[in-house]
């Protein structure tokens, strides 16, 4: 049975965190580089994750927490019991450079399996959540799965650098589709698949906090979320991921394993 008291708390926490992020645009923020100049962390990434970790510890001290910024100092080495996965700001570069096009992602797993996922498109005030066995909702309205029939009639979404360098054979997907779109935030790209604006989200390497909420939302909508070789995603490591409805997901997996001459790329791609 899904814990609706926990769900109600999460909704309140997401609203509070989103409001703080919107308000933070009014002041100068402390920004640090992680691996390079395009890999940033701001005081709001840390503050948002700290906020969630404190709330979870207060209400659910026995639960495990995985978060991008490592605020929880108790590393998760096995996925037994309830595991929370937090990406406090997905699209930090957009958050800094555009002050829009970023999200908050949170997911709940039970013994390694997704139970619920939350993605907040903060500047558009759109909160998506999915409860496995119940469905997916956008601002509390049920989201009907829109079944794209074939990649050739749709857009696909993913990271622009991946397509530009054909990482993970990604051009095989791009050339089959009408074109690729990249929003600089996995959160928003995954939402576009759930809404039927794009057929497939593909990444040849995502961290657990980047894919956990999307995985749970896909599961709740009856969509597939696996690695390109159809393996179950692993919450404890970086994985390549393919998200989409069962039809286009199967097509994407087939395309990704075919090494063939890359076809012509549509001029409007
Ligand atoms: C990044 C974004 C980006 C994706 C990267 C992620 P962050 O997350 O989702 O779209 O391509 O792989 O690391 O660092 O902004 O939370
Ligand atoms: Ca980051
Ligand atoms: Ca992320
Ligand atoms: Ca992040």
Bound molecules: D-MYO-inositol-1-phosphate, calcium ion
In the CATH scheme, the class of the largest domain would be Alpha Beta
Global mean pLDDT: 96
* CATH fold node name of the largest domain: Fructose-1,6-Bisphosphatase, Chain A, domain 1
How far apart are the termini?
A: 44 Å
Helix and strand run: HEEHEEHEEEEEEHHEHEHEEH
- In CATH terms, the superfamily of the largest domain is Fructose-1,6-Bisphosphatase, subunit A, domain 1
Rg, Å, rounded: 18 Å
Task: Return the structural class.
Answer: alpha+beta
For the largest beta-sheet, the strand count, sense and barrel status come to: 7 strands, mixed
* Count of helical regions: 8
In terms of DSSP E residues, the strand content is 25-35%
Tell me the domain tally.
Answer: 2
Low-confidence runs of at least 5 consecutive residues? none
Say how many strands there are: 14
Main sheet strand line-up: 3-4-5-6-7-8-9
| Global morphology | globular
Which CATH architecture of the largest domain would you pick? Answer: 2-Layer Sandwich
What's the SSE blueprint?
Elements: H1 4-24, E1 31-33, E2 40-42, H2 43-59, E3 64-67, E4 82-90, H3 92-97, E5 103-110, E6 113-121, E7 126-131, E8 135-138, E9 141-142, E10 155-158, H4 160-164, H5 171-176, E11 179-181, H6 186-194, E12 200-206, H7 208-221, E13 224-226, E14 239-244, H8 246-257
Parallel strand pairs: 3-4, 10-11, 10-12
Antiparallel strand pairs: 1-2, 4-5, 5-6, 6-7, 7-8, 8-9, 12-14, 13-14
Bound molecules: D-MYO-inositol-1-phosphate and calcium ion (CA) (3 copies).
Binding site for Mg(2+) 1: 68, 87, 89, 210
Protein name: Inositol monophosphatase family protein
Pfam family, one: Inositol_P
């Amino acid at each position: 049975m899904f814990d609706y008291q926990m769900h109600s708390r999460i909704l309140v926490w997401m609203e509070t965190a989103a409001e703080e992020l919107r308000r933070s645009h009014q002041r100068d923020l402390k920004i640090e580089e992680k691996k390079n100049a395009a890999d940033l962390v701001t005081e709001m990434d840390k503050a948002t994750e700290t906020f969630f970790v404190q709330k979870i510890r207060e209400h659910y001290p026995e639960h495990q927490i995985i978060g991008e910024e490592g605020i929880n100092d108790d590393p998760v080495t096995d996925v037994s019991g309830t595991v929370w996965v937090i990406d406090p700001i997905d699209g930090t570069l957009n958050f800094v450079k555009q002050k829009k096009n970023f999200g908050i992602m949170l997911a709940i797993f039970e013994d390694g399996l997704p139970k619920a996922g939350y993605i907040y498109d903060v500047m558009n005030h759109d909160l998506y959540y999915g409860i496995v066995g119940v469905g997916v909702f956008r601002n509390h309205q049920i989201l009907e799965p829109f079944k794209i029939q074939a990649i050739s009639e749709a857009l696909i979404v993913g990271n622009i650098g991946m397509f530009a360098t054909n990482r993970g054979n990604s051009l095989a997907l791009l050339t089959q589709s009408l074109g690729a779109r990249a929003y600089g935030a996995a959160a928003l790209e995954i939402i576009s698949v759930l809404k039927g604006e794009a057929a497939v989200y593909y990444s040849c390497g995502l961290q657990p906090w980047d894919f956990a909420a999307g995985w749970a939302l896909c599961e709740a909508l009856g969509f597939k979320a696996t690695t390109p070789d159809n393996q179950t995603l692993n919450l404890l490591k970086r994985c390549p991921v393919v998200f989409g409805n069962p039809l286009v997901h199967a097509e994407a997996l087939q395309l990704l394993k075919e090494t063939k001459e890359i076809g012509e790329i549509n001029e409007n791609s």
